Automatic annotation (TrEMBL):
The keyword Transmembrane is assigned to this record: yes
Natural source organism: Brevundimonas basaltis
Keywords of the record: Membrane, Transmembrane, Transmembrane helix
Transmembrane segments: 50-78, 85-103, 128-151, 158-183, 195-217
Keyword Membrane listed: yes
Name under which the protein is recorded: Threonine/homoserine/homoserine lactone efflux protein
């Protein structure tokens, strides 16, 4: 059995980095806190909350894939004019997003949770409306930090882009599910929202590291 070639090694590394980035991106409170809050307010069972998480996560990744495909088409057209541009453009975007999240984590100071446990109010909207709102909220916002990965592999073909989408879906849904369940299980103990200030820094550093990997591997 022959060892994987350089291109295959790079692809596997980027797929792994894509999964990790999607998971870290899903750890941001906007990807799990609304589900914990709405599920609590609507008095949903765990199964209903997880159904909303999975559907919303897949919708989030689907929209990201559509936007990523459009970027790939535009990038390939541009690459015909400037050969070899795509990997470096991808790295620049990774650096930019990484720097943005890193700076925001330093400047932004989210309020820590504390005080008495929240009372559970009676549901104010129908379950269908709450479910649809959660899905729509995720669907209208593509995962911008995942888009550079599509650009980096624009010349890899449909199979490679499909593989990226699959690992993004796995990382996103797994992350959203895990942190939503933790929030439900430890609402008054873990206070997960206090970790918001660290998640941005970790995600920013991870994106910068992936960008460095892309640049260094090309030399």
């Amino acid at each position: 059995m022959t060892p994987p070639g350089p291109d295959q090694t790079l692809l596997l590394s980027l797929l792994g980095a894509g999964f990790a980035t999607a998971f870290l991106h899903a750890a941001l409170p906007t990807h799990w806190l609304p589900f914990a809050l709405v599920g609590r307010a609507q008095r949903w069972t765990v199964d209903r909350v997880l159904a909303a998480v999975v559907v919303a996560g897949l919708a989030h990744v689907a929209v990201t894939a559509v936007v990523g495909s459009l970027i790939v088409v535009a990038g390939l057209a541009l690459d015909q004019w400037i050969a070899g541009l795509l990997p470096y453009l991808s790295a620049v975007l990774l650096f930019a997003f990484g720097g943005f999240y890193l700076i925001r984590s330093v400047v932004r100071r989210p309020q820590l949770a504390g005080g008495a446990p929240l009372e559970t109010p009676a549901p104010a909207v129908s379950n269908a409306a709450a479910f649809g709102a959660l899905v729509a909220t995720m669907a209208i916002s593509p995962g911008e930090v995942l888009l550079p990965f599509y650009l980096n592999q624009a010349q890899g073909g449909v199979a490679v882009l499909a593989a990226l989408t699959v690992v993004f879906a796995l990382g996103t849904v797994l992350g959203m599910t895990l942190f939503t369940l933790l929030a439900r299980a430890g609402w008054s103990v873990l206070r997960l929202e206090r970790w918001a200030r660290y998640e941005g820094a970790v995600l920013g550093l991870a994106l910068i590291a992936v960008g460095l990997f892309v640049v260094l591997y090309r030399h």
